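Dear colleagues,

As part of the handover before I leave the project, I'm documenting each prediction I ran so the next person doesn't have to rerun anything. This entry is a single chain, and its sequence is reproduced below.
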Amino acid sequence: MAALGWLTPRRRSATARSVLAGEASAEAARKSAPETAPQALAEAGPQEPEFPVLGDDKAAAFFDLDNTVMQGAALFHFGRGLYKRKFFETRDLARFAWQQTWFRLAGVEDPEHMQDVRDSALSIVKGHRVSELQSIGEEIYDEYMAERIWPGTRALAQAHLDAGQKVWLVTAAPVEIAQVIARRLGLTGALGTVAESVDGVYTGKLVGEPLHGPAKAEAVRALAGAEGLDLTRCAAYSDSHNDIPMLSLVGHPYAINPDTKLRKHARRLDWRLRDYRTGRKAAKVGIPAAAGVGAVAGGTAAAIALSRRRR
C-alpha cells in the first residue's frame, strides 16, 4: 500500500500491525466512498454556533461507532443477525449476549471481550463470500441497528454534512458492516477492521490487526493524508478512552457518552463533552430514559435464558 507516504508526524507510538491495519482501512474506505458529496441527513439537530465552519473543505469529522453513534456493539448486533440465519449455534449467541449486556452496563470496551467477539466473528465468516456478508449486513441494519442510533450524535454528524464536510465512521467492526451503516446514515464512508479475502472469499484472517486504539489513529492519519485534510481543523467523536489516540490527532475532539477515563481526560484537557444517556439529555434528543433501562433489562433476561438453555 502507498499510504506510508501520507503519514504526518505521530504524537503516539503505534505498532507495525496498527499502521498496517490503519492503512488497509483507509484504502478500503476511499475505494467505497462515493465521489459526489453525501446527501444531508434528513434529521437535523442542535449544533455548535462556531463549529463546524461552513465550506471548510480541509476539515472532516470522524465518529466512533459503538456507544457513540449507536447504542451497544455493532459486532453483537451483527452476530444476532447471523444467528438468525443459522451461521452458528445457540451457545455462541449466549456468549455474545453476555458480552453485550456487560458492554451496555459498563459503558466501556473490555479488550478480552472484544477480542473474543472478533475471533468468533472471523471463524464464523471464514469461507463465506464478501458479497454475501455485505448483502446480509443490509438486512441486519434494518432488523437490529437502525433503531439504536443516538439522535443526538446523528445531529452532530448532520451539522458537519450541512457545512459541506465529509463524515466518516471509525470502528473496530468489520469494514463491510461499517460501510453499510455509514451509507444508510448518509455519511461519506467508514474506516473499519479489514478481514483478509482471496477471490472474494474470507480466509479467517485479518489484515494487520483490529482497528482499535492506536490503529484507529493510524487509519484517520492515513485517510487525512490521502484526502488532503488538515487534522487541526477536523473533529473526532468517541465514548471510549481507547480512542484517545484518535481524539488527540484532531483540533476538535469530542467525548460522547464518555467512559470514566475519557471523561476525566476530556475535562483535564477542556475537550467538549456530550452525554445522551442521562434522563435530562435523553429528553432533549427524544429518547425516553426508561427505554435504555428496559433494553438493558431485556438483554440481561435474554442472556440468562440462553445460558440456562445450554445446561
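The longest strand covers residues 166-174. Residues 289-310 form the longest helix (22 residues).

All the best with the project,
I.
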